Amino acid sequence: MNQDNDLVLEVRDVRTTFLTPRGPVRAVDGVSMSLRAGETLGIVGESGSGKSVLGRTVMGLVSNSPTTTVTGECLIDGRDVHTLKPNQRRQLWGPEVAMVFQDPMTSLNPVKRVGRHITEALRLHLGVGKKEAHDRAVELLRQVSIPEPVRRMTQYPHELSGGMRQRVVIAMALACDPKLLIADEPTTALDVTVQKQILDLLASLATERNMATILISHDLGAVEGRTDRVAVMYAGRTVETSRTSRVFNNPVHPYADALLASIPRIADDPHTVLRAIDGSPPNMLNPPDGCRFAPRCRFAVDRCREESPELRDLADGTDDTHLGACHFPLLPARQEVG
Amino acid sequence: MRRITLRIGELLAVLLVVSFGVFAMVTLMPGDPAVAILGEGHPKHEYAELRDQMGLNDPLLTRYWDWLSGAVRGDLGTSLVPPQGDVTERILGALPVSVELAVLGLLIALVLAIPLALWSAAHAGGTIDRMISATMFATLSIPSFLAGLLLIMIFANGLGWFPRAQWVRLSESIPGNVHHALLPAIVIAMMELALFTRILRNDLIVTLSEDYILAARAKGMPPWRIMIGDALRPSSFSLVTLMGISLGRLIGSTVIVEYLFALPGMGSMIVTSANQGDFPLVQGAVLVIALVYVVVNAGIDLSYGYLDPRTRRVHA
User: Fold this and answer.
1) Residue of chain A minimizing CA distance to B214
2) Percent of chain A whose predicted confidence (pLDDT) is above 70
3) Is the confidence at residue B314, as pLDDT, over 90?
4) Domain with CATH 1.10.3720.10 in chain B
5) What is the number of structural domains in chain A?
6) What's the pLDDT tens digit per position in A166-199?
7) Chain B partners within 8 Å of A109 (Cβ)
8) Residue B286: which of B248, B314, B239 has the closest Cα?
9) Cβ of B74 under 8 Å from any chain A Cβ?
10) How confident is the model at residue A331 (pLDDT cuts 50, 70, 90)?
């Protein structure tokens, strides 16, 4: 990890509200985070916890509009994306921040050749000529381990497998050498055998380029071992964040604990019953008062239902911070291993 | 190659069915061709002789075969009504007028519809989008004879920008021809414009919610490039299909416009000849329109392969 004070991303108390006909939906409700060059942050949570909206808000893809309100600050390289003019913001997309989307079946234009997807960004942002854009795109395809890159350039997305398409999406995102890459569930739509390859590819590319990465996933297995830090989101809020190994070995929030307990482990006996979390995430049109996890929390008491817990440092004297949003954190539930 | 052969076979089969339909339908039309030729008041046996001479007493299939074998060689028979000319010649005189009007009208509609739809879809729900659709529906609800009359009154009679009730063939003078064709083509375009704009706008809105549009935005592509470069082509299926149908339809049915501007097109020719019981001319004209229809739609089918590479077959 880079220890210089070179923050690539700084997010302060960001809130994203969608104004729907049935009322405002606070999809992201006060999230802060920061990321240095070369650092990898995992964002985990159930579907609907606001992780994807957070990713899109961070890069400004979701921004203020007649149906959307964004407050707080999202500083990319020191500039707040939400106060920039649209054309200035677009100049960040590609060279500063890029995104890898969930479903490679739908995130490539079916009527455009693979090559065009990559070269158009190169030509737009770097102003390179046709020939050079082509050569660079071939090189990018090679870097994401696509065999026969020259031939792939003229193929259409439907001629490629899911894993190959996701590699194209990654090459597309990396085209202008972004400082920050946001990977939004990059493997959810892929075959299990391909998932690991794509995750490892992303990790090695991030290391090579000293690129900051946000890995958004509902798959804790994808995040463990591939991220430096992890943030657990629940109902639009961060409930716990720290170094990945700390969160995985010593979760302080009952939700994080329950989420981790629901992962099947190879070490488990065969036929071990999977542990699910009872209930379902709250309706974001009308979230519960107090701690939003309280209705599903087995430790919840009256205070949890009335008073919303602040995110605070619960690390017991170690140099790392370990933030948790719980009135009664699970401390020290287990000793940290490794 | 096999695919193209198959395609042509399919086309011929369709044409065969259509030609039989046309022939049979016209045969069922009321009226006696012999009366149409000789006029009323002749002795009965004269009509009977003429019918016999013309082969009208032969079985339907025999008559169809005679007609079809002629048609294949380009001979559609002779018109029954003075100036009893060659049907093929009459049609070749009228068809270019209709084709030109239809093509020009569609082009005008298309050239206006694409930017309007792009703008509407990009600002869906906004004031301008709503203004555009309101205007389009207003246009759609004006009957074409009224629109035509208004245009004639303003631009031909009032301002004198355009001639009226004249036609200059394309072969005579290209600027002269366009000058004469423009006003009627605008009337035709007005009828199609609203539909084209609406269909394209709605398809664009669906396309704009696709992930690859978001991905293109995330690359920093400017909105207008996304609209034209990413959204337009995948959204144009319905529009292209509709255009094919419109083109076929317009060639035989611009009667109102042809009458208004006194143009020698297919529509007015068919209406006149049907009224006069001029069977060969009606049969020939309808067959030619059917031919254009079938060929245009085959072309449209082929264009899907261009519009969406996924519909191209790998084994050509």
Assistant:
1) A107
2) 95
3) no
4) 103-264
5) 1
6) 999 999 999 999 999 999 999 888 888 889 989 9
7) 212, 216, 230, 234
8) B248
9) no
10) low
Q: Is A177 exposed, middle or buried (0-12, 13-18, 19+ CB in 10 A)?
A: middle
Q: Is A116 inside a domain boundary? A: no
Selected for mutation to probe chain B from A99, A107, A116, A165 (highest B CB count within 10 Å) is: A107
CA A53 to each of CA A14, A62, A198, B158, B219: distance values in angstroms, whole numbers, following the listed order = 11, 7, 22, 60, 17
Interface touch A93/B218, C-beta < 8 Å = yes
The answer to whether the CB of A136 falls within 8 A of the CB of A219 is no
Mean pLDDT of the region B182-199: 89
How distant is the Cα of B310 from the closest Cα of chain A, in angstroms?
Answer: 7
Angle, CA of A204, A191 and A189, to the nearest 5°:
85
Query: What's the whole-number mean pLDDT along residues B299-315?
Result: 76
Probe site for chain B from A89, A102, A109 (most B CB atoms < 10 A): A109
ipTM above 0.90, yes or no: no
In a domain, A162, yes or no: no
Structure token digits, residue A195:
């998932």
Q: Between A and B, how many CB-CB pairs are < 8 A?
A: 70
Residues of chain A with Cβ-Cβ distance to B230 below 8 Å are 109, 112
**Is the model's pLDDT at A3 over the cut of 70?**
no
Which residues in chain A touch residue B307, judged by CB atoms under 8 angstroms apart? 111
Among B211, B220, B229, beta carbon nearest to A94: B220
In DSSP terms, A44 is beta-bridged to: A217, A232
- The CATH code of the domain that includes A246 is 3.40.50.300
Q: What would the mean pLDDT of B157-169 be, rounded to a whole number?
A: 75
- Backbone Cα Rg of chain B: 24
| CB interface of B with A, residues 194-223, below 8 Å | 210-212, 214-222
Look up the domain containing A298 and give its range.
7-106+177-324
Task: Let me know: does A235 contact A284? Beta carbons within 8 Å.
Answer: yes
Class of domain B103-264: mainly alpha
pLDDT tens by residue, B65-123: 888 888 888 888 777 777 778 888 888 888 888 888 899 999 999 999 999 999 999 98
Averaged pLDDT, B13-21 = 88
Contact B290, B22 (CB under 8 A): yes
Is-contact A68 A17, C-beta < 8 A?
yes
Q: DSSP H helical segments within B123-173, as ranges?
A: 127-141, 144-151
Q: What pLDDT does residue B165 have?
A: 66
Chain B touched by A315 (CB under 8 Å): no
Cα radius of gyration (chain A): 21
Q: Please tell me the pTM assigned to this model.
A: 0.84
A192 found inside a domain: yes
Q: Quick: pLDDT tens for A103-120.
A: 998 999 999 999 999 999
